[in-house]
């Protein structure tokens, strides 16, 4: 087998795995977002959502996705307020969420530990997680199509292109969610399901064809090792011996395990720990982490930031009292 075939097909199989998992996660997360929007009505009237993202802080390795819509009313152009209809062109660069707030009718944020504050926290978590999955798809789907073409695979990948084009952009809900019922949201999910199912079926077919290509390729395998076993070994090596992360550390692949971290303290803390790991596997005090990620006070506890997160105790480990590090699996 030519030297580049097994690694290339193994990388393709890994991309397929990432995309398939991202589709499943996205479907579950979007449904959860819709449920939270409906539940917001129980908080009373007047609540609205305000968030900020900077397109310039997006992932430059993924092409921006442009959306277009119109708006009416006062429009500010070059400092002048004009009344009329405007056409707006917005880039989706998969930038992290800089700020996110629930605001009442008087533009006040929720009281701490109130139901509104809890709902705000839940929705922010869901949006960060969905952003990570959508960004993973934005990177994986074009790469899978490109590699399938490069390898002359015959499986039609049109459904992957269709999904890539039709994936919603942040914040992943319609422009007037307050006017929608649970039945309206369910209809959106029902209409979207065939698109997701078709894409997952295509991913399955591409994976089978790619594996078959490796099995039938002319190769000199290791004694007692078939091309298929060689492919699986290479795919497993790529999945378990490599680590990578998104530019903002909201998504991390850690030696065979994919993690999603919220775009606030979790992602910032992982980024700081990663810096020490790359410098030689060192640990760092949680006090230093708290200071550098903007957590006020001397009582910052890393374990609270990652409470109930599966990375704590596996990827993120305690070396001594108040000192943490990233740990490669045994």
Protein model, in words:
This protein has 330 residues and is α+β, with helices and mostly antiparallel strands. The protein has 2 domains: 5-51 and 105-240; 264-326. The chain contains 8 helices and 10 strands. It has a 3-stranded antiparallel sheet. It has a 3-stranded antiparallel sheet with strand order 8-10-9. It is globular and about 65 Å long. Residues 218-222 have low confidence and may be disordered.
Short description:
The chain is 47% helix and 18% strand. The protein is an alpha+beta fold and 330 residues long.
Question: What is the strand arrangement across the widest sheet?
Answer: 5-6-7
Report how far the terminal alpha carbons are from each other: 31 Å
Major beta-sheet overview: 3 strands, antiparallel
Number of domains: 2
Overall mean confidence score, pLDDT? 85
Write the layout of secondary structure elements.
Layout: H1 5-39, E1 48-53, E2 65-77, E3 80-92, E4 97-103, H2 115-150, H3 158-166, H4 182-216, H5 227-240, E5 243-245, E6 251-254, E7 257-260, H6 265-278, E8 284-285, H7 286-292, H8 302-305, E9 316-320, E10 323-326
Antiparallel strand pairs: 1-4, 2-3, 5-6, 6-7, 8-10, 9-10
Helix pairs in contact: 1-2, 1-4, 1-5, 2-3, 3-4
């Amino acid at each position: 087998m030519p030297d580049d075939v097994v690694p290339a097909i193994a990388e393709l199989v890994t991309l397929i795995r990432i995309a398939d998992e991202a589709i499943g996660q996205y479907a579950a997360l979007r449904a959860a977002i819709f449920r939270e929007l409906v539940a917001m009505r129980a908080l009373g009237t007047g609540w609205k959502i305000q968030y900020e993202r900077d397109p310039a802080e997006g992932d430059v390795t993924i092409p921006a996705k442009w959306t277009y819509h119109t708006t009416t009313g006062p429009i500010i152009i070059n400092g002048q307020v004009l009344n009329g209809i405007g056409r707006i062109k917005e880039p989706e660069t998969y930038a992290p969420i800089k700020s996110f707030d629930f605001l009442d009718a008087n533009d006040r944020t929720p009281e701490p530990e109130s139901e509104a504050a809890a709902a705000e926290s839940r929705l922010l978590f869901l949006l960060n997680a969905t952003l990570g999955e959508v960004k993973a798809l934005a990177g994986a789907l074009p790469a899978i199509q490109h590699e399938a073409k490069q390898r002359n695979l015959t499986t039609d990948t049109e459904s992957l292109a269709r999904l890539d084009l039709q994936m919603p952009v942040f914040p992943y809900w319609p422009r007037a969610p307050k006017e929608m019922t649970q039945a309206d949201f369910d209809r959106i999910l029902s209409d979207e399901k065939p698109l997701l199912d078709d894409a997952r079926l295509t991913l399955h077919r591409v994976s089978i064809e790619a594996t078959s290509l490796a099995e039938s390729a002319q190769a000199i395998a290791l004694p007692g090792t078939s091309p298929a076993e060689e492919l699986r070994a290479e795919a497993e090596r790529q999945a378990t011996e490599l680590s990578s992360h998104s530019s903002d550390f909201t998504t991390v692949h850690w030696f065979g395990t994919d993690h999603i971290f919220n775009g606030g303290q979790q992602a910032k803390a992982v980024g700081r720990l990663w810096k020490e790991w790359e410098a030689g596997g060192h640990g760092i005090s949680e006090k230093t982490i708290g200071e550098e990620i903007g957590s006020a006070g001397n009582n910052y506890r890393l374990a609270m930031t990652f409470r109930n997160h599966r990375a704590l105790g596996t990827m993120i480990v305690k070396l001594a009292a108040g000192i943490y590090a990233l740990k490669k699996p045994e």
